[in-house]
Design a protein that fits this description.
By secondary structure, the protein is mainly alpha-helical. It contains nine helices and no strands. The longest helix is centred in the N-terminal third of the chain and has 15 residues.
Length: 163
């Protein structure tokens, strides 16, 4: 039993140390989207990213929401014309994930926001990016470091389902 526990602990240490060392390359998306440009127009994270119950995930705006402005704003640009075709077909583009948490990790956006974390805490300066890229280490080590810094619980079962 002691060997199993030590082996699991050693595995946790290895996982905790394999994090993002520098910003990743921008992720190619089906349509160009500048968070910077939209932020400069006064849109906030919550404008497009809703947090429906139970609050684990943040949504991505439906094309119909984008077309609320883009029926007229930049309507002649090739990218907006492609967006409009998606709206006509009532289909959303398949956006590439930039941040992905493993399925065995419990993560609640709502719990983090309610505890005082901001979108920038985990996602970096998205509002300054023309092309989204991962800038913050969301590996186990990065999360544990943040939990220590913010005096949040850091025991295994807080984020992982007991097996």
């Amino acid at each position: 039993m002691r060997i199993v526990i030590l082996s699991l602990w050693a595995a946790c240490i290895v996982c905790a140390q394999t994090g993002l060392k520098s910003p990743a390359a921008p992720v190619e998306q089906p349509l160009p989207f500048s968070h910077k440009k939209h932020s400069e127009l006064g849109l906030t994270c919550k404008t497009c990213h809703k947090n429906a119950d139970p609050g684990e995930s943040m949504g991505i705006a439906a094309v119909s929401s984008c077309m609320g402005c883009h029926k007229t704003a930049a309507a002649e640009s090739p990218a907006i014309k492609r967006l409009a075709r998606h709206a006509e077909m009532k289909s959303d583009p398949v956006w590439a994930r930039v941040y992905l948490i493993p399925s065995y990790v419990f993560f609640s956006h709502r719990r983090h926001l309610e505890s005082g974390a901001t979108c920038q805490t985990c996602h970096g300066p998205v509002a300054a990016q023309d092309q989204l890229r991962r800038e913050i280490d969301i590996s186990m080590g990065g999360c544990m470091e943040c939990h220590v810094k913010n005096r949040a619980r850091n025991d295994c079962n807080y984020c992982h389902e007991p097996r």
